[in-house]
Amino acid sequence: MLDAPGDLAPFLEAGRKLFAGEAGFVWAASRIDNLPPMQGLEIAFAGRSNVGKSSLVNALTGRKTLARTSHTPGRTQELNFFDIGGRLTLVDMPGYGYAAVPKDKVQAWTVLIHAYLRGRANLARVYLLIDARHGLKPADASVLDILDKAAVSYQVVLTKADELKKGELEGRVATTAEALAKRPAAFPVVQPTSSHTGLGIPELRAAIARLVAERA
Ligand SMILES: Nc1nc2c(ncn2[C@@H]2O[C@H](COP(=O)(O)OP(=O)(O)OP(=O)(O)O)[C@@H](O)[C@H]2O)c(=O)[nH]1
Ligand SMILES: [Mg+2]
User: Fold this and answer.
1) 91: which of 10, 44, 134, 192 fits an S-S bond (Cβ 3.0–4.6 Å)?
2) E strands within the chain?
């Protein structure tokens, strides 16, 4: 069951604390038969190549170089697992669906991404990142289909909100929420963020802290 949106305020402080402690790299997997043991709660960040997944992991943890970022698509080539204070694991995923990345690589990563999302029992939530400038793309649909089918709860996060004017961003939030309305596993709130300005980061930390509290 999806939890009610909108009551993040009580979790802002817990979210801040959760991400104020230790954070460290624990594992990288380039194949589905090489995942770390399932333990504790996992939260994954998925999205098209270059959408800002690794930057968001860094923004959440307040670290500049925990996850490696790049302005060229295809930087993250493995599933990277990060421990957050022994309380949960964040998974920075490779990107999918970018035309500028060699086809065979995108294909291999897509197979890995799909297999992971389908079969990870301790995966508590997926944050599906969408570039606020571009909105949902066809490549996103197959991932949304997998999550709906596997009943993995997910929330759409708009990235790079700093690139849009206020009105444009509000429009993108509305059209994205509308497109997700009929999807059964989608959390009903679209969260705008910017890893550059910090917009939406406290709210995302709070949402994760609430999830940790619920599953404790
Ligand atoms: N303007 C703006 N640019 C951003 C933001 N977040 C990330 N970027 C830029 O987007 C580019 C890609 O960022 P990454 O975090 O490496 O993206 P990724 O989704 O991890 O990419 P892959 O690992 O290649 O799939 C970099 O040039 C970042 O500086 C943001 O909030 N605002
Ligand atoms: Mg990356």
Assistant:
1) 44
2) 23-29, 42-47, 79-84, 88-92, 123-131, 154-159, 191-192
Length of the chain, in residues: 216
Nearest ligand to the CA atom of 132: 1
Pocket test for ligand 1, best of 195, 199, 204 (most atoms within 8 A of CB): 195
Q: Residue 133's closest CA among 171, 170, 167, 164?
A: 164
Residues with Cβ within 8 Å of 146's Cβ and at least 6 positions away in sequence, in order, are 114, 117, 118, 152
Cβ–Cβ < 8 Å for 56, 208: no
Nearest CA to ligand 1 atom 8: 52
pLDDT score for 5: 58
As a whole-number percent, the residues of the chain with pLDDT over 90 amount to: 85
Asked if residue 55 has its Cβ within 6 Å of ligand 1, the reply is: yes
What is the set of domains in the chain, with CATH numbers? 5-215 (3.40.50.300)
Question: Is there an atom of ligand 1 within 6 Å of 52 CB?
Answer: yes
Q: Give me the residue label for tokens 């500028």.
A: 100
